[in-house]
UniProtKB/TrEMBL annotation:
Gene Ontology molecular-function annotations: peptidase activity
Name of the protein described by the UniProt record: Putative AgrB-like protein
Family, similarity comment: Belongs to the AgrB family.
Coiled-coil blocks: none
Native species: Listeria rustica
């Protein structure tokens, strides 16, 4: 229900921003879209971390979320089609999954194996674009891939160095979530178009 009111709230806020100025429709639409994205992300964040607080999972959720974002910032990947779908999915992957993973302890060879799998997939499949944000520029795609690999390497190096087993598992979960969101199999299963830059 809230997602239905976001455009109206965004329009009201945008009108307030421009109340003393004349502005054309395109400018108004751009600012309104930015306000909508901000409101959706704030709402999603509050929902996710409130759910985490109710389960006593604040720091676990934060670890998974940060490790996920560190890689996602340059590798991109799938988005939910609706704000509500994004919020529900976020609660599941950042609160529910960590709840079951928080006590998991992995052996040294399992950590190395999972880390290698993550790094290999990031190197091969990042960045993954979407229908709404195709990455047409080949040079930009290469730069994003290099940054994604570097970010992944830094996160995985931290996994190897940190002595706390539960945090190792949570960081790897965050990385694996992003691998899933850039993988062509996920696009195929969800019937979403892959390599959108090829469809100019």
């Amino acid at each position: 229900m809230f997602s239905l009111t976001v455009p109206n709230m965004a329009a009201k806020i945008t009108r307030t921003i421009f109340r003393d100025r004349e502005v054309d429709e395109d400018r108004f639409a751009i600012v309104k879209y930015g306000v909508e994205i901000f409101l959706v992300n704030v709402t999603k964040g509050i929902t996710v971390y409130l759910s985490a607080a109710l389960l006593g999972m604040i720091w676990q959720t934060l670890v998974v979320h940060l490790s996920y974002l560190m890689i996602r910032r340059h590798s991109f990947g799938l988005h939910a089609k609706t704000s509500l779908g994004c919020t529900i999915t976020s609660v599941i992957v950042f609160v529910v999954l960590p709840y079951f993973v928080k006590e998991v302890q992995l052996s040294g060879w399992m950590i190395v194996l999972i880390s290698a799998f993550i790094l290999l997939n990031i190197a091969i499949f990042s960045p993954s674009d979407t229908e709404n944000m195709p990455l047409f520029n080949a040079k930009k795609r290469h730069e994003l891939r290099v940054k994604s690999i570097k970010n992944s390497f830094c996160v995985l190096l931290f996994v190897i160095c940190i002595p706390i087993e539960s945090i190792k598992s949570l960081i790897l979960l965050g990385c694996l979530l992003q691998v899933i969101l850039i993988h062509p199999w996920t696009y195929k299963i969800l019937k979403r178009r892959y390599n959108n830059y090829e469809n100019r």
